Amino acid sequence: MVLPSAYLPPISWFSPLVKGEPVIVEQYENYQKQTFRNRCTIDSPNGPLALSIPVDRSTFHGGHCLMKDVRISTHTDWQRQHWYALETSYFNSPFFEYLQDDFRPLYEQHWTFLIDFNEALIRQCCQLIGLQPDLQRTSHYCGVDDPQPHFRPTPYYQVFSQKHPFLPDLSIIDLIFNMGNESILTLLHSTRPTEETR
């Protein structure tokens, strides 16, 4: 399955990985703004909160840029802001205290290309969940597949469940900070077999 690069992807992005399918990340597509290529959605006291990584548009040509060439803008202190948002939202979650050091260093490094930062976070998430995918990148443009048809969100504990209803398909980091090593069980329950494989 070919998936787009994504910043702390939604839980559904990981469905093919749980099923053991080989996953290739599309790096030759034109970057699409206002998508989870540079944006993730987390839980917060006030409901869903979108975090966006600013990109450097000076390298775009005619408004276009291949995903593999998209550079992260250095004009804002987005890393500190994003980490503060994660810390504020998940400080009281069951596993933030134990897992924060697995993520914080990635927010303290300098990253040039968006796709590299995305991949580093995805690999860290997979390691914590207990997945060992053979992640590769496309060698030419292939297009992307939609993992959603195989995904049926299974409710799990969320830190602000007393304030608002369950929020499905948030960033994978919401699942990890709330469920820890049981995240894989939620993923398995949320991944349904296709008609062809039943």
Q: How is the main sheet built? A: 3 strands, parallel
Question: What class do helices, strands and sheet pairing give?
Answer: alpha/beta
The helix count comes to 6
Overall mean pLDDT stands at 94
User: How do the strands of the widest beta sheet line up side by side?
Assistant: 1-2-5
Uncertain runs with pLDDT below 50, 5 residues or more?
194-198
Spell out the helices and strands N to C: EHEEEHHHEHH
Helix content: 25-40%
What portion of the residues fall into strands of 2 or more residues? 5-15%
Tally the structural domains: 1
Characterise the protein shown here.
The protein is of the alpha/beta class and 198 residues long. The protein has one domain. The chain is built from six helices and five strands, in the order E-H-E-E-E-H-H-H-E-H-H. The chain has a three-stranded parallel beta sheet with strand order 1-2-5, with no helix packed on it. Strands 3-4 form a two-stranded antiparallel sheet. The longest helix has 16 residues, at 114-129.
